[in-house]
Amino acid sequence: MDRWRRPGLARGVLGGVAGFAVGALPIVAAAQLGADIKPGHGLALGYIGAQVGWLLGLGALRFWTAWALGRAADPVDQAAAHGRAGDWTRYFRFTTDHKVIGLQYLITSFVLFLTAGLLAMVLRLELAQPGRLMDGDTYNTVMSTHGIVMIVVALIAIVGGLGNYFVPLMIGARDMAFPKVNALSYWLLPPALLLIVANPLLGGFDTGWTAYPPLSQQANLGQQAFILTFITLGVSSIISAVNFLVTVARMRAPGMSLTRMPIFVWALTVTTSIVLVATSVVAAGMTMLLFDRLLGTAFFRPSAGGDPILFQHLFWFYSHPAVYVMAVPAFGAVLEVVPVFARKPLFAYRLAVLSFIGIGVLSFMVWAHHMFVSGMADYFHIPIMITTELISVPTGIVFLSALGTIWLGRIRFATPMLWVFGFLWNFVIGGITGVFLADVPTDLALSDTYFVVAHFHYTIVGGMVYGLFAGTYYWFPKITGRLMDERLGRAHFWWFTLAFNATFLPMFWLGLQGMRRRVADYPADLADVNLWTSVASSTIALSTLVFLVNAIRSWARGPKASANPWRAHTLEWQVASPPPVENFEHLPTVTAGPYEYGVSASGPVIRPGGATGH
Amino acid sequence: MTARRDLAVAVAIWAVLSAIGVVVVLGTQILPVIASREAEVVNGAFVMLTVASVPILMLVVVPSAYSAIRFRASDDDETDGPPIHGHRAFEAGWVVVSLVLVIGLAAFGTIGLLEIRGGPDADLEVRAESTQWAWEFAYPDLGVRSKELVLPVDRRVRITIVSDDVLHSFYVPAFGIKQDAVPGRVTYLHVTPTVTGTYGAQCAELCGLGHTKMVAGVAVLELSEFEAWVAEQQPQQP
Prior knowledge:
The complex is a heterodimer of chains A (about 625) and B (about 240). Chain A is mainly alpha-helical and about 625 residues long. Chain A contains 21 helices and no strands. Chain A folds into two domains: about 1-75, no CATH class; about 75-575, Up-down Bundle (Cytochrome C Oxidase, Chain A). In chain A, about 65% of the residues lie in helices and about 0% in strands. In chain A, helix 3 (about 40-60) runs parallel beside helix 11, helix 7 (about 135-170) packs antiparallel against helix 12 and helix 17 (about 415-440) runs parallel beside helix 20 (about 485-510). Chain B has a five-stranded mixed beta sheet, with no helix packed on it. In chain B, helix 1 runs antiparallel to helix 2 and helix 2 runs antiparallel to helix 3.
């Protein structure tokens, strides 16, 4: 019975259910009195009530409510919320330690990754042969859910997972600037994620993750689950972004100047700046769409003077920069790993930092390349084509930096370094094929075909997922205090890389043959290649099991990791593995750059206590 | 001295592989069917971009593969590499070359855009009407309606595209182009079919339950055959 008396998961669930009832009941009552009520109204208000009830029950708001009621903060409760080392329950409650939150994000992402991956298997089952196995609504719902769940994974895995865990450690801070806000950003997600995964129970939705009206205005209640999830994710991202930016601006250890900041921290800084600026635009667009569905507004309803193209502008004004929200942290992770295993300073560090900033700025000027066939004015194609191709210049610098670092290096092929090479080979294919979609003449043929599907899987998997695995294999010993099995790691890399290419390379060809994306059927002459692709895709899923087995086994009984098994120079490796609760007993003073390989034997000298930098 | 030799060898491998790649690309047909003047422009853009892609791909593949083999250290080697933090001239050269390349590609793209979207008035106007989930084609000047798109060869056609429900997209792979249908707006594309035959039109913008099946036939006929078809379709005068 004790669990009901204290804030926690059980009370959170109870609060969520109660909140839903409180939110939805007035709607039911209004319907009884003859108001024109749709189930969507009940779902919207019920969801808001459920979120509030969930957060209250969880204890996520208790510090703020105490403050509002004029009570003094309870230091014992605050310390308890931060958690103690070795207490596994801290992973299942509102805990403010950034390392706990990072792991919560990371594990959540991986569960979602497996879920959406299984949905992809269902899609490929339907597409293995011409003809139909499932009805159109089912296929569209599976396809749309696969899309949005994978988007969530790509958005939160590195930023929320590795970013939360390592940014404070890498800049020499004890935590994020706003630990409670940080925990809140995570705990907003479970109700939203539950809602999107359960959308088939609400009739599903058939618009893909892009939710273009007018189709999304007539779609089932599952569409609304999508909108509510999207907006919630937006709120979570925005507060998390503010937190990262303030942390990097204000919490750096003495001597950790901007030019000594690890490249991964720079990547997160640029990424969260993009998130902060762009996310509210799409949240506004989604809210307008929700109002069109529920309140009879006509922002995007052409029959009442609205404009469906406006939605596309609002959507892509966020959703293209979002591609860089996925990719730039991966660039950061890759460039973080390269110098350690090439034993050389990061090549052209300053130019790489500038390229991240350049990507961040340009990412806001390219959105309309998703709309070359949408019917927008022809002249607008030209500046968008130029800016889109221009962004390949800063992106190319990422390659320059990685290649310049391995050139003449002393390369060790530990598993993280394999994923770096995988990133280079796969992401370059994504980048080059992107130029075909940026170029208007070729895009007129390729838009909305399987070429696009192949392209964005090469950018998101080739970029983001390879960066995620490079970072995960690299930092696993730090997080768990255990080494991963190198043989299984290599097996995972080679298997995944072959399976991924076997699946997605043929899709470029399918697109050139005119096979449209998001269809459940295709002409018989494309049958052989589609069957091959379906079989190959199932081997991607199997390769992921190798990672799962390796991670679980190593975590449970892998060999103990020393503080710095890779002999890296950045700060996170200068503390124990796993790091103590408050990271640093004494705040470090940083006296050297993060990648001085070949210059000094060890990392930046940490002088504990009041010593000053120079 | 040896560092300079490594560079020379890698550059030589890059040049050879790039040359082979370009030859292979030039011998490959990229678009499977090219049945319109616009598809010819699009295919030209494909060839240009693919040729440009080969040396860029090799610029990543060759140095990384070369380094992986040549600069691999043994597992018990604990030495660091040379402390090279960058190379001003090389960095500047990389940026300038990629900028020039991008400007060139954008210029070619703009020319292609003008060729496809600009140009003279059309000889024939057709209205592609989309609805969930079917196409219908109207010939306003000829008083004909049809479920199949029938066009005369070598005539410039303006296809205006409308929708009365959700977004659709008019896409004929053999013509190499597509254009969305937007309710509340009239969009258009120009196409000049160059090869007689039968092709397929399909909806390329997800439009719900029947999206997969939203296809229509396309026939490109000799002018005389087209006129005969029109006469056959026109309602008989009483």
